[in-house]
Amino acid sequence: MKKAEDVVLEAIRRGNFEEAGRIVFRDVFKPLLDLIFHIEKEVDRNTENIARLTEKVDKNTENIAKLTEKVDKNTENIDKLTENVKKLLGETGRLRGRDVEFRTGLTLQGWFRKNAPDYEVFIWDGTEADILIEGRGILASIDIAIKPKIEDVRQLKNGIGVIEENWGRKPDLLIIYSRSGIIPKRVADFADRMGIKIVRKPAEIRKILDESK
Questions:
Q1: Of 47, 96, 155, 177, which sits 20 to 30 A from 184 (CA to CA)?
Q2: Considering the domain 116-211 in this protein, what is its CATH number?
Q3: Entry pTM
Q4: CA nearest 128: which of 157, 88, 99, 166?
Q5: How many other CB atoms are there within 10 angstroms of residue 203's CB atom?
């Protein structure tokens, strides 16, 4: 740059302004213009790349939105399926319980017919009890449970009025028959407070009936 400056000054001293102008343009302005042109090309190239990148980002954003929508729909479907499975399992468990109660009721009916014919066993179609046993002036309301629960105690107690209304008399005894033989202490204590007996064997039911005459 210093050399170009000296050449320009020398040309001016000689009065050769045209040559000085060419030197200034060639050594000063042209490199600047070339640099500006190069920068403009780089800016254009970067702008184009940014536009392409923006387009890709927009497409990815759109794809992510679609994927999110699908995930939300799948989540909703999974929730509905889970709810339906729970309902199905609950209904299956309820039906299994009713089946066990009914078959156990038939077993008790057969046992009493053979071993205690003075008592007659009736299958009760309702939630208040599973069977009624009547004989020798005694009426017993009996709930059959695989494993007795607090709710079984409440259900048997709350069903007294319905049985009295439909059978014509109030049950003298309330008994829960544990099909599994398991009697949780908490349930046993609660049943005792409610005046309800919990038994494991048919013979225990007969004993309670005999002792209540």
A1: 96
A2: 3.40.1350
A3: 0.58
A4: 157
A5: 12
